[in-house]
Amino acid sequence: MNKFYADSMLGKLSRFLRFLGYDTIYRSEEKVEEMLELSLKENRTVLSQSKQIIAQCSKRNIKSLNMPTKSITDQLRKLNSHLDLSLDVPPSKMRCSICNGGLKGREKTEIIDQIPKGTAKFYNDFWQCTSCKKIFWMGSHWEDIKKIIEKSKISEENEN
Ligand SMILES: [Zn+2]
Q: How far is the CA of 133 from the centre of ligand 1 (A)?
């Protein structure tokens, strides 16, 4: 499975890749040297909008892909067409959007005191990050994410 290191401009894309189950490192503050070293060591593809970073990657034989600046759908489309990246990863593979940790299914009774009352009433499936402990459920936010992912599966020419 593809693993990524996304540059500091690609916070939104990082969250989407993690939702899709792809191991993605993202730092809001750019650490170029760490990015290059870790990507080489862990066989990660560098995703960047910076020509300099892409150039450094090719110089050091690090896999990289230049990301379009336009929209999240364009970025996902490019990943899909250039790396054959699946946009249909099963929810069991989902990773934490905050810290890239793995998610584990939790029983509602186990975490009920850690979620809002209304949420406990309307949802039954919960996941918890094994690393930062944040709890996730497929709320209305999830529907928005799914819509964007579905839209990314349609090529630009066929949009609307
Ligand atoms: Zn986490």
A: 6
Distance from residue 156's CA to the centre of ligand 1 (Å): 33
Predicted confidence at residue 92, as pLDDT, reads 83
The total of structural domains in the chain comes to 2
Say whether both 60 and 10 belong to one domain. Answer: yes
What's residue 142's pLDDT? 84
Q: Which domain holds residue 98?
A: 92-139
pTM, 2 dp: 0.90
Secondary structure, 3-state, the chain: CCCEEECCCCHHHHHHHHHCCCCEEECCCCCHHHHHHHHHHCCCEEEECCHHHHHHHHHCCCCEEECCCCCHHHHHHHHHHHHCCCCCCCHHHCECCCCCCEEEEECHHHHHHHCCHHHHHHCCCEEEECCCCCEECCCHHHHHHHHHHHHHCCCHHHCC
Residues, beta carbon < 5 Å, ion ligand 1? 96, 98-99, 101, 129, 131-132
Å from CA of 158 to ligand 1 middle: 36
